[in-house]
Write a structure and sequence with these properties.
This protein has helices at 2-30, 38-60, 66-83, 85-100, 104-124, 131-137, 139-147, 165-173, 177-200, 207-216, 219-228, 234-251, 255-271, 275-290, 293-307, 309-318, 327-330, 337-346, 355-360, 381-392, 397-416, 427-439, 447-479, 485-492, 496-509, 548-557, 574-582; strands at 514-517, 529-531, 560-565, 586-598, 605-616, 629-630. It is an alpha/beta fold. The chain is globular and about 80 Å long.
Length: 634
C-alpha cells in the first residue's frame, strides 16, 4: 500500500506540473507573449502558473473558512490550466522526442538525469522529518487550515512564511502531505532543467546535462527537495528564469516580456527575506541592460505586485514588514529581545563576518561553522572551476546579467545572513557558467587542465550520488513500504514520540483547552497547542513572565490548561515554572518516558527521556483528574 501511495503521489505531482504549465500558458497566450524555444516556453509556463497559484491561494486563505477558500483557488487554477493543456502536451511530446533522438554520452547523461529525478522524487514521498519543516514550514499552513488566518505570536516563525509556503498550504488543504512535499520536489526538478537550459544558451552537447546533474547531486539540493520540506528551493527556479527573462525583455519590444521578468523577480522576493537581495540584483541587471525608464518602472511595479503579499501581511500584523528585524527601530517597546536574539542566531545574521568571509561567498567557498552537517554542503565545484569560468566570460547581455545576479547576490547574502546554504538559489546559474568554462577547453592545447576539470566534475557527481544513496536510503525504504510509516517517524522525526504522548493523553480529556509546548517540532501534534519556547516564540517573553499573576493571566487569556515538560523547561523559564509547581498551580497529570533524539540528529543519540503533562490547577474540573497518572510511551 505504501508503494502504491508513493507512486500515486508522484503521479499527482506530475499532473500538478502539467496544470501549472497549462495555467501559465493560458496567461502567456492572453498576454500575447510569444516564446519561440519550446523548452523555455514550457519552463516559463510552469513558473507563471506556480506564481499565479500562490497568489490565488493567498487570496483564498483570507476567507473565514480557509480550507474552502484554498480549495476554491485550486479549483479555479485547475480549470484555467485545463484550457491550455493541449499546447502544453504538444510541447512536452516534442521535447521528449528530441531527447529520445540523442546519441552517445549526451543520451546517457539525459537518462541519468531522469533516473536521479525519479529516485529523488521517490524519496520526497517519505513522511516529513525535516527540522524546520516540522517546526514551521508545515505547521503554519496546517494551523491556518485549522484556526483560520491570523497572526500567531507564539509560533512566530509564521511571519517568515513566504509565497512558496502557499504550495504547502494548497497540498495540505487538498488533504495530502505527499502532494505538499511533492510540490517542493517539483521546484528542485524544474530548477535543474532551467539551469540546463541556461547553460545551453552558451554551449550544447553534454555540458547542460552535467550542469543539471551537478545541481541535483549537490547535498544541500537533494536535502532541500527530499527530506527538508523547505519550499525555498523554488527561488532557484525563479532566479534562473529571471536571468533569462531579462535578456528576452531586452530583445523584445513587448511590454509583456518586461512584466514577466518583473513577476519572476517578485516571486523571488516574496519567497524569503533573502530573496529581496536577489530581486534587487535582478532589478539592477534589468536597468543596466534595458536602460529605459518606463520599462524599469513596469518591471519594478510587476515585481512589487507579485511579491508584496508576505510583507503586507507582516506590516498589518506587526507594523514591521520584515518582522522582527526592523522592530527595534520601529517600536522598541514591543521587542522581545530574547526571541530576537534567537532569530538572529538562527538565520546567521548575528554571526561576525569579515571581508575575507564575504569574498568567499560568490565562489561558494565558505563553510558555515555554526550549521555544519552534510545537508549544508554545497561542494567545491564552482570554486574549482572558477578560473576557467571567468576566462570564458564574454561581453554579452546574458553574461552581464548572470555575473551581476551571481556575484552581487552572493555578496548581498553574505552581508545579510552569513549562511552558506542561502546561496542555493544562485547555484544553477553558477554551475551553468562553470560548465561553459570547461567546455571552452575543447580543441585547445590545455589537455592537462581539461582532464583535471573533467575528473573533478566526475568525482563530484560520484560523491553526490553516493551521498544521495546514503542520505536517502531510509526515505526510499519507507516510500517502498519496506518499513512502516510509524517506525520511520519514530526513528527519524525529532519529537515525534513526544507528540504521540501528548496526543494520546489529551485526546482522552475531551477538552477544548490548549497545551503549552516547549519542544520544537510540533507538526505531528493533533491537539490544540501553543508553542512556548522563548527562543522562537514572540509571545513568551521571559522578562514579562516573572510572577505567578503573569502566568495566571497567560493561562487564562490563552485558554491554556496543560503545560508539557519534556524533559525540562526552557532555561529562561525554569525558575518561574518550578515555582508554579511548588505552589500547586501546576499539578502533574500524566508522566511517562519516551525515546527520542538527544541533540542534533546528525551527531546525536537516541535515549529514554521523561515527559510530564501538568494541569493548570485553577482550570481543573471534573474532566481533569488531579491525581498523577503513569504512562509509558517508549
Amino acid at each position: 500500500m505504501m508503494l502504491l501511495a508513493s507512486l500515486a503521489g508522484l503521479c499527482y505531482v506530475l499532473l500538478s506540473g502539467f496544470l501549472f504549465a497549462g495555467l501559465g500558458r493560458f496567461l502567456l497566450d492572453r498576454a500575447r507573449l510569444s516564446i519561440e524555444n519550446r523548452v523555455e516556453r514550457l519552463l516559463a509556463s510552469i513558473a507563471l502558473g506556480v506564481v499565479s497559484l500562490e497568489l490565488l491561494v493567498s487570496l483564498g486563505e483570507l476567507v473565514p473558512n480557509a480550507r474552502a477558500g484554498v480549495l476554491s483557488a485550486l479549483a479555479l487554477a485547475a480549470a484555467l490550466g485545463l484550457r491550455s493543456l493541449s499546447p502544453v502536451s504538444r510541447d512536452t511530446r516534442e521535447i521528449i522526442r528530441d531527447i529520445a533522438n540523442l546519441t552517445g554520452l549526451e543520451r546517457w547523461l539525459a537518462l541519468g538525469l531522469g533516473g536521479v529525478l525519479l529516485v529523488e522524487g521517490f524519496a520526497a514521498m517519505a513522511p516529513l522529518t525535516g527540522s524546520d519543516a516540522l517546526h514551521y514550514h508545515f505547521p503554519v499552513p496546517l494551523l491556518i487550515l485549522r484556526e483560520g488566518f491570523h497572526p500567531n505570536w507564539f509560533l512566530s516563525h509564521s511571519f517568515f512564511a513566504g509565497l512558496s509556503h502557499q504550495l504547502i498550504l494548497a497540498g495540505l488543504a487538498a488533504g495530502s502531505e505527499r502532494l505538499a512535499l511533492g510540490l517542493i520536489y517539483l521546484g528542485g526538478a524544474v530548477a535543474s532543467l532551467a539551469g540546463a537550459h541556461l547553460a545551453r544558451q552558451w554551449v550544447s552537447g553534454r555540458w547542460p546535462w552535467l550542469a543539471a546533474l551537478a545541481f541535483l547531486l549537490t547535498p544541500v539540493t537533494f536535502w532541500q527537495i527530499t527530506t527538508a520540506g523547505a519550499p525555498d528551493i523554488w527561488m532557484a527556479y525563479f532566479v534562473t528564469l529571471g536571468v533569462l527573462s531579462i535578456v528576452r525583455a531586452k530583445e523584445s519590444p513587448r511590454v509583456a516580456a518586461t512584466v514577466f521578468a518583473g513577476v519572476m523577480a517578485g516571486a523571488v522576493a516574496g519567497t524569503k527575506y533573502t530573496g529581496l537581495v536577489l530581486a534587487a540584483c535582478l532589478f539592477i541587471a534589468f536597468i543596466w541592460e534595458v536602460r529605459r525608464f518606463r520599462r524599469s518602472i513596469i518591471f519594478f511595479s510587476s515585481a512589487v505586485i507579485t511579491g508584496f503579499w508576505p510583507y503586507l501581511r507582516n506590516w498589518v500584523w506587526s507594523s514591521d514588514p520584515v518582522f522582527p528585524f526592523l522592530m527595534s527601530h520601529l517600536d522598541p517597546s514591543r521587542v522581545n529581545a530574547h526571541a530576537l536574539a534567537g532569530y538572529l542566531a538562527d538565520t546567521g545574521a548575528s554571526a561576525p563576518r569579515g571581508l575575507w568571509q564575504i569574498i568567499r561567498f560568490p565562489l561558494f567557498a565558505a563553510v558555515d561553522l555554526a550549521h555544519v552537517d552534510f545537508s549544508s554542503f554545497l561542494g567545491p565545484l564552482v570554486l574549482c572551476l572558477a578560473p576557467l569560468t571567468f576566462l570564458a566570460v564574454r561581453r554579452t547581455p546574458l553574461w552581464r546579467v548572470v555575473l551581476t545576479v551571481w556575484l552581487a547576490g552572493a555578496v548581498g547574502i553574505g552581508l545579510t545572513s552569513g549562511m552558506m546554504r542561502f546561496l542555493l538559489p544562485l547555484l544553477p546559474i553558477a554551475l551553468a557558467a562553470s560548465m561553459v568554462g570547461v567546455a571552452q577547453l575543447e580543441g585547445q592545447r590545455w589537455r592537462a587542465v581539461r582532464v583535471t576539470a573533467i575528473v573533478s566534475i566526475a568525482g563530484f557527481l560520484l560523491f553526490g550520488l553516493g551521498g544521495l544513496a546514503l542520505y536517502e536510503r531510509n526515505s526510499w525504504a519507507v516510500s517502498a513500504g519496506l518499513i512502516s510509516r510509524e517506525t520511520y517517524l519514530r526513528e527519524h522525526a525529532p519529537d515525534y514520540a513526544r507528540s504521540e504522548f501528548v496526543n494520546h493523553y489529551l485526546s482522552e480529556t475531551g477538552s477544548d483547552g490548549r497545551a503549552l509546548i516547549f519542544f520544537r517540532h510540533v507538526y505531528y501534534l493533533h491537539v490544540p497547542y501553543l508553542y512556548g519556547h522563548p527562543d522562537a516564540s514572540w509571545a513568551m517573553n521571559p522578562e514579562e513572565l516573572q510572577t505567578d499573576d503573569a502566568w495566571r493571566s497567560l493561562f487564562r487569556s490563552q485558554h491554556i490548561r496543560w503545560v508539557v515538560r519534556a524533559p525540562d523547561y526552557p532555561e529562561s523559564l525554569t525558575i518561574a515554572l518550578k515555582s508554579l509547581e511548588s505552589e500547586n498551580i501546576l499539578v502533574p497529570c500524566a508522566t511517562g518516558t519516551v525515546e527520542d533524539w538527544a541533540g542534533n540528529r546528525i551527531g546525536g543519540t537516541r535515549q529514554l527521556q521523561p515527559i510530564t503533562i501538568l494541569c493548570v490547577r485553577d482550570q481543573i474540573g471534573r474532566k481533569y483528574p488531579r491525581e498523577e497518572r503513569e504512562m509509558s510511551y517508549d
